[in-house]
Design brief:
It is a single chain. The protein is mostly helical and 398 residues long. Helices cover 60% and strands 1% of the residues. α5 packs parallel to α7, α13 packs antiparallel against α14 and α17 packs antiparallel against α18.
Amino acid sequence: MGVNEKLLHLHNQNKVQHPLAVSRHALCDLSNVSPVVFLYLLKECYVYGTCKATAKFRILQQQAYGFLYNDPQPGAAIFVAQCLYVLPIFESYCEGFSHLIISALRRFLKVGNGMEGISKAKLLAAKLFLAVVDGSMHHEERVLVKILEVFDVNLSNIEKAMYDTDEKGYTCQMAKVLVEQYISRLVESQSYMTAVSLLEHFSIRESGESFLLKMLESKEYRAAEKWATFMGKPLLCTLVQEYVDRELQKNAFDVIRQNNLREEFPEIYHQYKESKLKKLAEKGCWDVAEARVNEDRQLLEYLVYLAMEAGYTEKVEELSERYSLEGFIEVKELDASFPKDRYLQLDELSIKEVVWVDEANGLLDATCHIEECQVVGVDCEWKPNYEKGSSSNKVMFG
């Protein structure tokens, strides 16, 4: 049977033609999206992503930065501040998403965007800080520091938030007292890095050497270095001396190098450099050691001394000629002082357990003896290669 084309044509005519519509995702236009909905959509993107957690977070971080260009109301800075207010209800996602949107806003503001409404955003961030301080809202300490930094909240903003007014003429004294009390609580709980970050952010310098010593006693070295750097050269010198007294030479050297204190501590600087050169020399990394010297004459002379001590006469001569070093023993005299054409004889050692194998029958006897042993120890000589990217040295069995 054939198809009745007339009936088919009539049937198609009776169909209602619905126009197709393309709907944009809500994140493409944030003009009518609330902070709660925005965060919920971010959460959905994260939950349903198929990558590993770290990769998903990085991708979402990049996307969040782009979303801030999609007209969030009443402005990107205020919008992010409002998001930070509601994030605690997302519980386990709170800390991660806080870092995510703060990072996105920092990048957004860095290129000169989102400056409209920044004053209101600062006030919101200051109120959020007060809420965290009085315990009515929870944010991790690191997140709180980043909030203050990205919104550039100062004591004046906190004072305004405390009294909820725009009147001028505040001395910021009450805000300073409140911040110092909060910092004291952080110190009592040994949250030294957060305490130092807040002291630095608000430029509070009342604490001094006693605070530094307290951090050192708790082995909070990073916080101590951050605090000393903020306070200036006198406290940095105190820190270096404390490190030396505690036999933390590497820490002392790092502070000296990073803060240009070589003139204040020349002996400590060279002692540490010499210890590093000695370790390299012991490993046979003479070229690396020479590169680390950086043409410092005192260190060069020490390197030559190490070569002399190791009996490496070629290196002594090479370094002396290259850097015009004088006052060392003549290499030829040094060579002459060592006996030549003579090898160590096992008979002289008077060790009966040592068997020297130097012919075929001796090798067969040694093989039979080894096969009867349950445990065989093998010693090998191997020189490690410390040059990045170069091939490994061969192993020589002994």
